[in-house]
């Protein structure tokens, strides 16, 4: 497969994508991922691609058939106790991605992080490998580190998006800037010359708030979403995935998408 064919596993003919990250098992406790293969099978009708660690890529080969498979190439560790906050560190690359049948690779890019120099070098090295492998790279680009909404300002996200694109990412995954409007987000999406997808972050426990954020992101020109915990920790994962799919691929309103969900 060439690079464009690999990207097409994720970006559908409408130019949009619904990606489900299930790569959390090396970073945080993962209630809701007890049977990831069954989860994939249940969500396949509404998901274009998955982000997986190497072990799950091998374990779920049959369930992932026909879907975009993105190998997580780093370990992104939130600070814990007195552990050194390295933020993210590379584990794998193009060789492992080819071996497990992946169509893309994903790595963190934390701007302004104490380990920014190391993280930038590792992201650049991965992109360098990708040039010879035809495997696109999705950089998960966040200011300072993961799970820091107070730092996800419009200015910080805008810089981080552009930095990821300038490094050579094929797609940039980021957070919707805290408190931003669709018009404000559009201004930085339009200044990023590669597709931008929006992550979901920690489980919100509020279906309408999630769908409204995704609707704003799509209205602002985002190419799609990479929503994990808000799907697989949801009481009805397939229902919320169907609602998200409706917004991304059918341009559904929030009210119409909410109809896919069970009444409280």
What is the highest CATH level, the class? Alpha Beta
Q: How many distinct helices?
A: 11
Strand order of the largest sheet: 1-2-3-6-7-8-9-10
How many structural units, i.e. domains? 1
For the report, how would you describe the main beta sheet? 8 strands, parallel, barrel
Order of helices and strands: HEHEHEEEHEHEHEHEHEHHH
Secondary structural class: alpha/beta
CATH fold-level assignment: TIM Barrel
Principal-axis shape? globular
Number of extended strands: 10
What name goes with the CATH superfamily?
Aldolase class I
Strand content: 15-25%
- Can you tell me the CATH architecture? Alpha-Beta Barrel
Question: What would you report as the Rg, rounded to the nearest angstrom?
Answer: 17 Å
Whole-number mean pLDDT: 94
The helix content is 25-40%
Low-pLDDT stretches: none
- How far apart the termini lie comes to 45 Å
